Please model this.
Amino acid sequence: MASTVQSLARNEEGVLGKPMTRMEDPKFITGTGKFIDDIRLPGMLRAAFVRATYAHARILHIDISKAIGCKGVRLVLTAAEIADDIAEVPSVGRSKVATATHRQVLASEEVNFVGEPVALVVADDERSAREGAELIEVEYDQLPPVVDPEKALEKGSPKVHSYLKDNVGYHFENSFGDVKKAFAAAEHVVRVDLEFPRLNAVPLEPRDIIASYDGEGILTAWVASQSPHEMRSDLASILGMPMPKVRVIVSDMGGGFGQKGFYPEYASVCYAAMKLGRPVKWVESRAENFLAASQGRGQTQHVEAAVTKDGRILGLKVKVICDGGAYSDWSISMPETTVQMSTGTYDIGAFSGEAFTAFTNKSPIGAYRGASRPEAAYLIERTVNVIAKELKLDPVKIRLKNYVPRTKFPYHSAGGLTYDSGDYEGNMRAALKLAKYADMLRYQRTARARGELVGVAAITYVEVCGFGSGYPQTAAVTVTDQGDVIVTSGTTPHGQGHWTPFAQIVADELGVEPKEVLFRSGDTNSLPWSTITAGSRSAVVGGSAVLLATRRVKEKMTKIAAKTLGTGTRRLTFSKGKIYAEGSGKKVSFKEVASIAYRPTELPEGMEASLYEYCAFAPPGNTFPFGTHLAMVEVDKETGKVKIIKYVAVDDIGKVLNPLIVDGQVQGGVLQGISQALLEGIVYDDNGQLVTSTLSDYHIPVADTAPSMECYRTETPSPFNPLGAKGVGEAGTIAATPVIANAVEDALSPFEATVEKLPLTPSYIWSLMRAGRDRASEPSGHRKAGRLTRRST
Amino acid sequence: MRVQMEINGIRTESNTDATTLLSDFIREEAGLTGTHAGCDTSNCGACTVLLDGRVVKSCTVLAVQAAGRKVTTIEGLGDANDLSPVQYAFWKKHGLQCGFCTPGMIVSAYALLQRNPDPDEEEIRNALAGNLCRCTGYVKIVESVRYAAKLTREGKTPFRAAARRRKEGEIHGPPGESL
Model:
């Protein structure tokens, strides 16, 4: 694919690419950030929800009488009260392959997961609202819950939705090359079954909203959302309002990680605010977040690899089943991307993939950092590890043997995607050196000789990012008549630190200081359109929109400066607050040109006054960041506890805008990836009751057990955007899980254990060790056959 | 009931319920919203404050238990023109991302440095084990605390010098920039 993007030549003296500290930090380190719960409006009321206590049940009766009489309670809403005024929650829309579901913002006839909102209570304060909610009595008739996604797809399974023919929410198939031939030609077929549990993203700030309805019929919602304009569309469509009458404002936001999309709760709260004519705030509890916010991952994977005896992968068959939860939105199709990315960094000639998302009586599946790509990297990197183990090949050499060669980019993968650029072998070789891989192996040998369970692993991941060719990101750049520069960004921050790198982009273009660039985002009134902040697309797509809008401003300023200086436009440079005519020594200040731009009589012929440019950037294709991560772990023989001795990340995210921020993204991502290998897993019981509903049951990492790590980079620019950036937000979360799982499996090699599920808790590891000991003590003739099928040739 | 305490050196008095948590008292009665609540189970530590100089999770203390005592919140450690070494170090070393856990994290780090001016990595990690951060992976938080310890030991206050220069009109831009 030819690049249609003019890349940005970096100015070595500029600030772009330098490690600048963040401009937004002073408010956060002094406790003066404005998260939703920090905002108080006059007359504001508080809301609390009544939630389903069964995974699957018919609602027979809701008695709200006790709550209505309760002190401080202003309003109680159930489906019956709002039915005439409120539309269904938007489902999968026009997608042909996904199954649409019918969901009301408050459950009307049936509840389909524990925690589904059933009623809303609005009161003078939070305590009264919660007490009111506790007084609402709901009578249910239980229905059989659908809990296991594989069983949900079997014929005769109880259905989540009686109006659907089965529990298939989504089905996808693709293939490439001659799979039959590849498997016939292979000397070995290796089979791997994997489980990736459901996870909660656990943003430290839970979901929240304040809705306010004014006398002019304008609804304003301050809401923790990763996509303000899409939130506006959803609210408007459910509430039956014209879009311009809904304004969404995203204030400071305590993390998102994919979880902060649209939720029906928001529409109920807005409705209540409209009905009462007073602002209403809802801040969920952590338990509510575990119950009703979306959960990520939740995949069962079945893989078959056709391999030659020297480890060349000829073909791959993949089947992915996703535990989809009760209702469908766009994220029900995520396993499609898992299938498409499941050939990873490898040049595989034949492929067939199939994905199902099954409806289950659980909270709906949704994006979580990496959304479908951590699952894919886990699938292929675990598979390659098992191949190496079963064929007794070196796990690094087998990777080097199968990589897509550097010369093949842009590369059309067997999974059906076009990778923009890459150098997997170069990255792996650099990583082996940087991590001192040989020393790691030496340490391992010595430790093993001492009887310690030490494991080493190196994996290479590739991910797909940007998602912008059919889905642009927007930005506007203003230079005021005083010469102040304002970036209005379509992509909104929730920890990433957009302001600083965007200011760095603008500063280099316009020759101003980054600190002179102000940043705004998150208000649907300040841009006509924006799209979601997700998929590591903020720098790649949003940053490029900032750059292109800035260039348009610069072009106009260049024309004004040329007229003022009496020169041509060609040789004007912007530097240190001035615009210079090269050669002539003439110059004019940036501020002066900005001022002239607002004086129509002094402008070049036909030019309109003001400096404001808008850009909706759509790249010609997606970006494919990649990298090698290495880990060395030690498993405690007595307890099964895993300790990470060394962790090294060598990522290639293309051109870097701000290395300080990139390091932070990688480190945070890696710890989430490690955590999903070792700690995290949502647990439902057989009745669909959530077992892990607090941070005491669902563990996220703490400082004293988190490892230190080393971060390095190689740099292969993307040809698909002018910044050459590839995206970094999700890299660590994608890479860390397989490398930890592989290292643990390596540590457990004396037990011939194969890791099949996550998280690798001490008890699971202990059970793997015990199974290994049991196998070893059995007479050899009775030992269980391996999973490797040897073909006679 | 009438509850009175000293928050960041200011006497705060209010009629409050016996079951009101200190965290709610700080946020609602004193209007100091830097102290955050991120869980229901005292796991997250975003509500960490000092009570008579000792680290507490303010969601596990009743407001009445703090009656007559001294409370220090993130706002009491320093403002944008007069940052404490810990606040400054978190900023310079990128010890925060979304900023939600940051106030509690900084208060815990501050308390650590009060009792141990030269902590090693393990001591830092142990001292922060009650504060969850979902963004940073803790690596840069540890770096921040080490840097804060160094600044404190060397008696350096670059942030105060910068504040003075800002006052005198030498520096512009967001508070604290270009230090």
